[in-house]
Amino acid sequence: MQLLIARNPEPDSSLPYLMLVPLGDGLVFRTKGTWPRTSAIYCHPVPRSEWPSEPDLVEQIPLRSCERRGAAIDIIADRGREQRSQLVFTTARGREMVFWQAPRTRKQARPNVRVPTARASGLPELAIVVDAHERYPYRFAKQQVVTTRRGLRCGDYGVELDGVLVAAVERKSLSDLVGSLTSGRLRFALAELAALPRAAVVVEDRYSQVFAVEHVRPAVVADGLAELQVRWPTVPLVFCETRTLAEEWTYRYLAAALTWIREEADAERRVTEVPEPTPRPLSADAAGPSTAEIRAWALLQGFPVADRGRLKPEIVAAWQESQAAPPRS
After folding, report:
1. Pick from 106, 113, 208, 229: CA 20 to 30 A from residue 24's CA?
2. Who contacts 261 (Cβ-Cβ below 8 Å, separation ≥6)?
3. Which residues have C-beta within 8 Å of that of residue 252, sequence separation ≥ 6?
4. What is the pLDDT of residues 114-156, one digit of tens each?
5. What span, in angstroms and rounded, lies between the C-alpha atoms of 156 and 186?
6. How far is the CA of 90 from the CAs of 19, 45, 102, 237, 250, in angstroms?
7. Backbone angles phi, psi at 168, to 5 degrees
């Protein structure tokens, strides 16, 4: 018995996946994700005939149990982590809806905020490079973003200036954060990110959930995160509560980083293009003959010179010209 997740063959659909639940003859839903890791996932029920004859499978999750219990379907996966989930049939806004949730996402509070649509840093469009290894990337569908998928040397999302990666964001779910922290992979990731002008790690959860993790002592996780921030203070760890807010933060951080780096590059170019200062005319205070020596020379040449005080610039210039002239034979 398996829970099958396939890509939706309709490219324009806002629900990019199809899910086949092994209950009865099979229930088919369009979904936004492959498992409710960070928040409940909306599911749209469709006829069984919409399941393609040759599906482009993304996930094949072995199940220990799949049973209907009242207005819900309990799904228990046969694996070590992310085992339990539930499809809940409910009514909202006057129509029937289905949500796919896990125990942790069910407890998670909704922030009840609306993500703004204003352009970040005033940029009409932002080009973001998405790492080719990112399995379920942000789509930035509500923002003025053009994405390109290819390999990044560090981070999951980045922006480039003149073909060079200048800022990046590493995305982490809480489970991935804890796993990479305890294995040591997060330490190497932050070391690579710190080599960029600007970089950050965004976590799709609340910091309070660090103290609710299982199988690892919460104090070990909290101490590890604090130690990483002290070691690499230029790479902040940002907790954004939900995936939607983490996506929004990533968009605005990369836009601000690119704007700052462009301004820094322009300022550096202006500084390097400043012409070399022209040498100042030799004055009586400069290294060389003293004022008294030049005054004595000027008196011999018949120039009117005061007995004390600074010499007139034309006196100093006449002395310089006399020194530059070739000696008479």
Report:
1. 106
2. 161, 166, 167, 197, 198
3. 120, 121
4. 777 788 888 889 999 999 999 889 999 888 899 999 999 999 9
5. 13
6. 18, 12, 16, 36, 32
7. -150, 155
